[in-house]
Design brief:
It is a single chain. The protein has 125 residues and is mainly alpha-helical. It has one domain. Helices cover 74% and strands 6% of the residues. It has a two-stranded antiparallel ribbon with strand order 1-2. α1 packs across α2 and α1 runs antiparallel to α3. The chain is elongated, with a radius of gyration of 22 Å. The two termini are 36 Å apart.
């Protein structure tokens, strides 16, 4: 009888853990994609890329909505065509913090056994 309950719990944990794992993978993938786009934006601005070029225009257009909330937080530093855009760096940090928080919430919803919970609580003391 005990073996059946353990198997049932293992099955329950397994069925709940896989979607959580996939969820965290999706969050990290989306973050990685956004961070790559924002890194391109930062580098293109820093290196003084031609805004009229197709690729540059595409990157600026796609990333503008991601950077827009942060544009007035700091000024931009311009030196001979190069731009050090603090807003892009700040947006990258903020999106990383948001993704980390989402992953933490997903991991917190993972079912744990009573002994595992006791060990984790003891570590928090």
């Amino acid at each position: 009888m005990l073996t059946i309950n353990v198997k049932r719990m293992d099955s329950y944990v397994s069925s709940r853990t896989k979607p959580l794992y996939r969820g965290t993978q999706i969050v990290w993938y989306v973050l990685g994609f956004l961070e790559a786009l924002l890194a391109f934006r930062f580098l293109l601005k820093l290196l003084g890329a031609n805004p009229g070029a197709g690729f540059t225009d595409f990157i600026y257009s796609v990333t503008y909505p991601l950077v827009a909330p942060f544009l007035n937080v700091f000024g931009t530093v311009r030196v001979e065509g190069s731009v050090w855009e603090w807003a892009t760096l700040l947006s990258m940090l903020v999106y990383w913090l948001i993704a980390s928080g989402i992953v933490k919430l997903l991991v917190m919803s993972k079912p744990v056994s009573t002994p595992e919970a006791a060990v984790k609580l003891d570590r928090q003391d």
